[in-house]
Design a protein that fits this description.
Blueprint: H1 25-32, H2 37-47, E1 53-55, E2 60-61, E3 68-79, H3 84-90, H4 98-103, E4 109-113, H5 123-131, E5 136-140, H6 146-151, E6 156-158, E7 170-175, E8 179-181, E9 184-186, E10 191-195, E11 198-202, H7 207-229, H8 234-239
Parallel strand pairs: 3-4, 4-5, 5-6
Antiparallel strand pairs: 1-11, 2-6, 3-7, 3-10, 8-9, 10-11
Helix pairs in contact: 2-7
Organism: Bordetella genomosp. 10
Pfam families: RraA-like
InterPro entries: RraA/RraA-like (IPR005493), RraA/RraA-like_sf (IPR036704)
Length: about 240
């Protein structure tokens, strides 16, 4: 049970973790300082035998120039299983992503396992997430009202936009449990990195080791860029090990 007052959007037992493990602020800052954020970290994950990168061709960003570094608060949505017109007539929505915003700390990233073709986050929902200080969202599914998130500078990586509400079609069954995003398992508290190239999830337990690898790769890339700019001949460039 969480110590925070609940919104009532989901039953208390649906909140799997009350407290999330937290990375030191300097670790987050060092990740944010990487020049080629997702590419460098994807390479570092390869070096350590980890997987967690998802290309923008799968989860596309709404704000291409934005970068995002934060820890995951997770939401798991499933199909509601009743006819939407019947659900609408009942007047009872069963989406509970607002509880994730309630549980989040400023800078956290909302990570939603959902459905494509219907909205897992509407405009008002994005406004509440932004007001709560969330850095952005990653949605394995669709969202709607893109103008609402764009005008707030609230970035979303998703499978696309839809006009169809999820209110009568989806049910939130877990907050801060394990979700699967484009085949990648993500736990609440895992590190989320995103930019124009895509999204990378770094397991919390490996965040320090991945960062060390990523900083080595980043330093090598910077040395190589400097040599290219200095006009070093191609044979020397090809023979030099930068990373």
């Amino acid at each position: 049970m969480t110590s925070k007052p609940l919104t009532g959007r989901v039953p208390p037992e649906a909140i799997r973790r009350a407290e999330l493990p937290r990375l030191p602020p300097d670790v987050l800052a060092r990740y944010a300082a990487l020049e080629d954020l997702t590419g460098t970290v994807s390479d570092a994950m390869d070096n350590l035998g980890l997987s967690g990168a998802i290309p923008a061709s799968v989860l596309a960003p709404t704000l291409g120039a934005r970068r995002m570094v934060g820890q995951a608060v997770t939401v798991r949505n499933v199909e509601r299983g009743v006819n939407p017109s019947v659900a609408a007539a009942s007047g009872k929505g069963m989406m509970g992503e607002h509880e994730a915003y309630n549980q989040a700390l400023p800078g956290d990233v909302v990570v939603i396992e959902g459905l494509a073709g219907v909205s897992n986050m509407g405009g008002q929902s994005a406004a509440v997430a932004h007001r709560a200080g969330c850095a952005g969202a990653v949605i394995d599914g669709s969202f709607r009202d893109p103008d609402s998130s764009r005008e707030r500078g609230f970035p979303i990586w998703s499978r696309g936009v839809t006009p169809i509400t999820g209110k009568w079609r989806l049910q939130t069954i877990e907050i801060n449990g394990r979700v699967r995003i484009a085949g990648v398992a993500v736990d609440a508290g895992d590190l989320v990195l995103a930019d124009e190239a895509g999204v990378v999830f770094v397991p919390y337990a490996h965040a320090t080791a991945v960062l060390a690898q990523a900083e080595k790769i980043d330093a090598g890339d910077n040395r190589q860029k400097a040599d290219i700019a200095a006009g070093i001949d191609l044979a020397t460039l090809a023979a030099t090990k930068y990373k």
